UniProtKB/TrEMBL annotation:
Gene3D superfamilies: MFS general substrate transporter like domains. Residues 21-402 form the Major facilitator superfamily (MFS) profile domain. One of its GO terms (molecular function) is transmembrane transporter activity. It comes from Lysobacter antibioticus. This is Major Facilitator Superfamily protein.
Amino acid sequence: MSESPPLHAPVPPGAEARRRGLNGLLVYTFFMVTGFAMLMPLVAVHFVNDVGLAAAAVGLALAVRQLTQQGLALVGGVLSDRFGARRMICLGVLLRAAGFASLAFADDLPLLLFAMAVSALGGAMFEAPYQASIAALTDERTRPRYYAISNWVSGVATTLGPLLGVALLRFDFRVVCLVAAACFALNFVIALRLLPSVAMPERPPPLRHGLDLVRRDRAFLSLVALMMLYWFLAVQINISLPLLAQRLTGQVDSVGVMFAVSAGLTVLLQYGLVRWLEQRLSTAQVLVLGVVLMSLAVGAIGFTDGFAGFLLCIGGFAVGAVMTRPTQQTLIAGMADPRALGTFLGVSSLSLAIGGGLGNVAGGWLVDVAATRHWPWLPWSVFCAIGLLNALGLSLMLRAPRVQALPAA
């Protein structure tokens, strides 16, 4: 990344506006994650068990959301660089609210795909501007700490969201969808009132300017490519793991228990564990170690036959996720060129688009194959192998001096 001044960077707000904006983003994060977490883990369970769709079909719908959202996040990032992050966030959360509301009335695969596509389009509009806002309002000194706090808030929301979703499910799945949509409608107000409007340059750069910067940054593109394998593994928390939790107990409440264990560990460990690790390891080392732990934990699921053992593996997976979330965010934001933050962070979303999309499709398909052929170990062995391959690739790529010079997680 060039050391020259950001020739086309937007004018940053003052210190007070930065503090207000970062606090506003924490509130925004809470409702964003709560709305998503109360609904998305129940989609697979509802449409497989209640509507009667195949797990592979529901995995396809989840992949459509993943591919559409992260695949078009680059568009949201480019538009954010040109028109401002707050405008794109406001547009995106309204589209997400509409998508979640329409999901309440989906009773077949085409309607499910439509609702997922609309909600994904909203996510594509707000995800990169949201990440760019954090990167713009923090610096290399404050960014790692802010990501740790933000992920702690996400952990609290991820704990409450599934529990609230399961509680509302006792009334009806439609109620879950509408309350989740209301969370994003509320974020429209939060974005208007609490997020600063960063002054854009009088003559914005051409749309292709940021893309040219990304294209020439081979180290950044290498990291994006490797993170595809990471997201293939990480998205199993939304497809194969909830399906197994429900099948082990025969009760949908077990999905809420699974997420409570995962998010509870996030709340307890996120800030303290990251601070402890940053005194002993580099950002890159923490990321690689976290991926290894996630891989081994999901691989161990293939050797468990009870819900208690399953929850123990979920705990290991959650601790690995605690280590990888802030570190991969810090690395991506630190390697992004400040002259085109939205574009760089939009391109980084392609890793989740491709890796997460394939992970959702493969996760649903492998669960079906494992059940049909009575190979319970199959999905978890595949996920473990892919995760360990990812850890190996990251350990080699992240030895570069440019990465080692970034602040600790």
